[in-house]
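Quick board copy: two proteins, each given as sequence then tokens.
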Amino acid sequence: MHEVEMEMRVLFVLLYISIFATILAGILAMLFLHLHPHFWWEEIPVFSAVYGFVGCVFIIVASKALGHHWLQKEEDYYEKR
């Protein structure tokens, strides 16, 4: 059991190091790379984050609606037949 705990601890340390490295790389890229926007909406601050969040919410709502109306059956659906 002790070996499993050590392996999990090592995996979590690697996970945290990789998250930190990704955030650091993003901050350094934002500070030193000056990319020019191709479209006007790319100049809006945090547009990509908001667009991604709205897209994710839309996918979740659409999949839940599809699941309720298309996949889910009434409780006695098979007893009626």
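And the next:
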Amino acid sequence: MTKLIRKILVVDNNKVVLRLMAHMLEEMGYAVRTAIDGLSAIDVLADFQADVIFVDLVMPKISGEKLCRILRSMPEQRNAYIAIFSAIAAEEQIDYQAFGADACIAKGPFKELREHVRTVLDRAAGAGKQASPSREIIGSDRIFEREITKELLSSKRHFEIALDRISDAFLELTPEGKVVYANAAACRLFGLSEEKLLSALFTDFFSPEQRGTVRKLVTDIDVETLSTGEDEPLCVGGRQVLLDVAAVNETSQRFIVVVMRDITPRKQVEEELRHQQENLEKLVAERTVALIEANTKLQRDIVERQKLYDQKEELIRELQDALAKVKTLSGFLPICSSCKKIRDDKGYWQQLEAYLGKHSGTEFSHSVCPECMKKLYPELDEK
């Protein structure tokens, strides 16, 4: 089945290649749009439905491989025929079909490139995607391996592997705040695939209340590094994060590097410790109140017991005094058989009523009994 090709998009960070490709394709009768990098390509495709897309493999601001993955995740681009331009075909065997491309052209002299582009267009218009032999790189037989390129590619792979293994989220942004690189930790933090993260506006992942703070950090940065404090961490998908932002200025462009550290587990531990501390302080306060109340009651009991003790001692003294007085009147008392005087313990003789009054507190009233009245005052008794 023949496919009608009308619109072509060329994506390459080399402006010379863009001009040559655009001129060549327009001479062939195609409507051509160009983009200087992956981000620009996504913007172009917002209002340009391309039938064939030529993508440079090695580009800043989203590589060709990642751009292909993004395009294949877009429903409107799933049927587009994608051909990769590779300047590293001799140094690295590229499995372009693994990331969604349909063909791969080794970059070489433009005269040869013209023929390779015609081949790709014929395949795109003819039998479709299945026409390209698996992993065939068109024109790779006419290029030669470069040792320095191999070393650079090796270093790049090692660097990307290392970034994907770190626990902190690592992102690279344009000066406008669009994501052009995100490691595996960043994808986990945001809960999105790399294809969904790339080209997205970084500030959109934060709440409206925090976007102003984030925008100031990543787009208005005028120093080398900025960081957010732990007192007011930012929130992403319910996670608390700290941001370290650095500006990287190169010869012709500027990038913003963002490292996001998820401090949610530590904050949860701190909150649990704070909660336990509050409970402990509350318990100590309650126990302190209870001890104060118990101490107050104990003090009252001590005072009451002391009062009772003093009362008991006073009663004992009174009893002892009373007992002493009783003992004074007990025992053997010498008394005169005639006058009835009593001799005290000092040898003095005292009237009976005087002695008893002194030792017992008894008071006497003097009177005469009937018998004595008869004996002493018979005349009064007769009356």
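Board note added afterward: Residues 166-262 form a domain with the Beta-Lactamase fold (CATH 3.30.450.20).
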